[in-house]
Prior knowledge:
This protein has seven helices and 18 strands. The chain is α+β, with helices and mostly antiparallel strands.
Amino acid sequence: MPxxxxxxxxxxxxxxxxxxxWEEQPADIVAELRTLWSRYGVxxxxxxxxxxxxxxxxxxxxxPLERTVRTDWASQAVPExxxxxxxxxxxxxxxxxxxxGEIEWHSxxxxxxxxxxxxxxxxxxxxxxxxxxxxxxLRAAYAGMPERLRREVxxxxxxxxxxxxxxxxxxxxxxxxxxxxxxxxxVTHTLLHNHPVTGxxxxxxDKTTTVGVAGMGDNAAAALLDEIYExxxxxxxxxxxxxxxxxxxxxxxxxxxxxxxxxDANARRLMKRTTMRLDPSRHIxxxxxxxx
Length: 292
Ligand code: OGA
Ligand code: MN
């Protein structure tokens, strides 16, 4: 029987109904979920009650879990699970990453040579307002761009830098280990990919890390990138998620960007986060090269 589902956005986001993700999923359900996730950039599961080990086990159905460079955000019990939170421990140290501020349009791990593109975010505590998360569909964004701009992106690689990402973070999330620095030199990725399942063309972008375009002068590159971002982020290509406690969202960073609204610093927000290496036969996996 096909899974119950409800579209949250016509092409970008789909809610999957009726699953109890803390239970083991039968093979036919797993196969259907994998197929669904290659069509929709965002899958939504609501009313879930998951421990960290259960969250990790479910997410690992889609690819090996990755421990990210933010080892300082890792959960003590299950290090493949990261904490995204503004909460502080008894010593006043942040228990996780990303604080309470706005987070601009980005694609996780775009600064990595080989980005792990699958992401899961599970909501445990939420502020009364703000803190919504939005995704933009970069397949639709490409399809809707003027022909001239489409020709331009087809032949270009952008330069993605973790240093730029860090500069945009709130205090507290800005410092990384020497080891993390070594793992994140500037890299280039092509701005355009084709989806291995649907064949659709999609942009690959990240406003918080792109610092240039390979082979282009700084001013011309900045102007081109501005034009691309302006054309890409249109309200009709965006899905905004209003979180409820117990929501688990999976998203594919290969053809989407996401952003977060800020929220009251005195409110509590606690999310648990996973990162997966998705299967290249079902997902766009951007290939990187060291920036020259
Ligand atoms: C992330 C992220 C947004 C949010 O975890 O990669 O961008 O809403 N989170 O917390
Ligand atoms: Mn993110």
